[in-house]
Amino acid sequence: MSVTVGIPRALLYYYYYPQWKTFFAHLGVKTLVSRETTRGILEKGIKSTVDEACLPIKVAVGHVMDLCDRVDYIFLPRVVSTARREYICPKFLGFPDIVRNNIEHLPPLMDNSIDLYRKGSSLYNLFYSVGKEFTHNPVRIMRAYQASMAALNNHCRDMESGRLPFETCDSNRHNRQDQDVGVRDVTIAVIGHPYNIYDHYISMNMLKRLRDYGANVVTADQLPEHVFRREAEKLPKQLFWTLNQRMVGAAFYYFDRPEVDGIIHVASFGCGPDSMTGELIERFARRESRKPLLNLTIDEHTGEAGMVTRLEAFMDMVRWRRQLDYVAATYY
Amino acid sequence: MKVVYPHMGLMWICIKAMLEYLNVDVIVPPPSSKKTLLLGVKHAPEFACMPLKLNLGNFMEAAELGADTIVMAGGCGPCRFGYYAHVEHAILRDLGYQYELVVLEPPQKHIGDLLDKIKQITGQQSWRRVINGIRFGYHKAEAVDKLERMANYCRPRETTAGATDRALQHALQEIINVAAPEGLPAALQRAVEIMDAIPVDIHRPVLRIGLVGEIYTLLEPFANQDIERKLGSMGVEVDRSIYLSEWVNEHLFLGLAKNTRSSKLVKQKAIKYLRHFVGGHGLETVGSTVFYAEQGYDGVIQLLPFTCMPEIVAQSILPRVSAELGIPAMTLIVDEQSGEAGLVTRLEAFVDLLARRKQTEEALA
User: Fold this and answer.
1) Per its UniProt record, what InterPro entries does this chain match (chain B) (predicted)?
2) pTM for this structure?
3) Taking CB atoms and an 8 Å limit, are A78 and B276 in contact across chains?
4) Contact criterion met (CB < 8 Å) for B313 and A93
């Protein structure tokens, strides 16, 4: 008998999917990823969550509902902490409970914790408790765990070499983003949570659009961990949100890079951590840098035209600004 | 050095007492008002939660009175509050305010960090005196909480409208006036006598509502539009899930003072619905709702500032708790857009529903 485990294409899927997939594959368990975000999935999510929840949570609930009837288990780890003395966000801590208390007819949830808050804790705890459900052989779990860690390392290296998570997550995508052609004369850094900027529906294909406008896109995930952590130390106090640490560190880093022409900060409406770090980034930009910064806030009402207009205007400004700099450098 | 700290309900009484006992110059910002909020909203990030905006407004108003040092609590997440002080400081600096910032928080590396910061505020006072000062502040908090509890009991039962509020002001004044720990028991005695003198009708049937939610909106009357008084005047006895002294005891003294209500029990009750802490008071909100249901309260009102992350988790879970335990629960979200009339309408409707429900139950029984 083969069981199927469902993995929602939401939240930390973009960072950890290769690892999870490898782990389950080594245990002989089939995995099924929810379909790509659509209007339908978002609508379902919106209906089953409180209005005040942020967009990523609504989308994630929609993805869980998409999986409901098709799988035997849903893999929904409780992401407490992925680094020492850091959290992700309170909503991640409570997400399995939000799902459990709002959706009827759920398949069993595997909501074991990812908790690296304390010194000496390891991801193994998560995988051991999940693996136990499928096999009684601890050696098999250990092997699967090791293979999954190797997959995770590969994934991180892939990202650092410039590929974006969705490109490494499923390699047979029909519209591979790196196949488009054209001259790319500017470099734009897109800073945002992975589940906002890599989800084609939520971000309204922002990355592809920017590339079509002739921009080279870089994101926070292409920086090795030690780089953004070093940059983030410029803050007066270490941030306790891992994802935002990455965003702030990356923003500071890209503000300093001469080849980066502009920065886009993407936040979802009502995101708690972003409201703080967005402010810090903006103030940093104003004080220390002349690079253009675009602050984009997205929610479930985002209109595509509004986004396009702002991106186009931003690109024009970036090019114009660069030209001015060039002129100034030539004549003065 | 003139020290300022943000308002949170009646907390200023305790901190002022503590710092003045330690011979520190204190500037208490004017009570939070529309003006405070406007100042905060103008300069704070758009979807930061309301407490940050009010804090910022407090600091800006205090600067006009000559304050030059901010003392704030910190934290290590995942609630945003842990980063408040630094964001506020950055905003104030960009606005041109020359504030010194002292953040009291659980030390990252060594307990010495925290002690250094306390020394920075208290100067050359002996540690013994510092500890006495902290105890003095704590006892004042206890006294204030006791008076507030008495007021919540009296308000729905008072025979002349407004008598409770007038008495509470007098009683609080007694506590505020005490400058040394020795005088506190006598002052508390006098204050309690004032409260006891309120004429009440103890046989009057009242509804009981538990207030749960985020600490700042629960404690700060400006943030919650004085919900306790409004409910009291509608004939509702209110119990708050968080009182300042209990919070201080649990989070700062790690439960050193015994015989107080502890959130441990409440957290255990929440486990069935929410299996992990979510920062802030999310877990306590769920647990307290269960607790109030078990205690036979007529309803629960959850208060939270817009975009508060832990409370949104709790809010998603409350409908299930409410349905399973049969306790009506209403969520009120406050931000700078909240209007008083809207709140009153909703409270009246909620209280009417509860009264009707109770009537039906009694008729059936």
Assistant:
1) Dehydratase_Activator_Redct
2) 0.91
3) yes
4) yes
- Position with higher pLDDT, A174 vs B138: B138
Nearest CA in chain B to A278: B45
Give the distance from residue B322's alpha carbon to the nearest chain A alpha carbon, in angstroms. 11
Please give the structure tokens belonging to residue A116: 């690296």
- Give chain A positions within 8 Å (CB) of B108: 85, 238
Whole-angstrom distance between the N-terminal and C-terminal Cα of chain A?
A: 76
User: DSSP 3-state assignment of A119?
Assistant: coil
Sign of the CA dihedral running A135, A139, A140, A141: positive
Which residue does chain A place closest to B318, by CA atoms? Answer: A101
CB contact under 8 A, A94 and B103: no
The answer on pLDDT for B333 being more than 80 is: yes
Of B91, B309, B316, the CB nearest to A272: B309
C-alpha closest to that of A14 among A244, A154, A168, A218: A168
Query: B137 to chain A, minimum CA–CA distance in Å?
Result: 28
Instruction: Tell me: do B32 and B49 sit in the same domain.
Output: yes
Q: What average pLDDT score do residues B169-183 get? A: 93
Q: Residue B316: which domain range?
A: 206-365
Low-confidence ranges of chain A (pLDDT < 50): 171-177
Q: State whether B77 and A241 contact (CB < 8 Å).
A: yes
Sheet architecture: strand order including B236-240: B236-240, B207-213, B299-305, B329-334
Instruction: Report the gap between the CA of A311 and the closest CA in chain B (Å).
Output: 21
> Do A4-160 and A180-331 have matching folds?
yes
Q: Classify the complex by whether its ipTM is higher than 0.85, answering yes or no.
A: yes
Q: Compute the C-alpha angle B223/B226/B232, nearest 5°.
A: 150
pLDDT in tens, A76-132: 999 999 888 889 889 999 999 999 999 988 999 999 998 988 888 888 989 999 999
Residue A280 identity: L
- pLDDT bucket at B107, cuts 50 / 70 / 90: confident
Judged by a CB distance cut-off of 8 A, whether residue A292 touches chain B is no
Chain A CB contacts of B91 below 8 Å = 279, 283
Same domain as B78, residue B16: yes
Domain A4-160 fold: Rossmann fold (3.40.50)
Closest CA to B357 of B330, B333, B331: B330
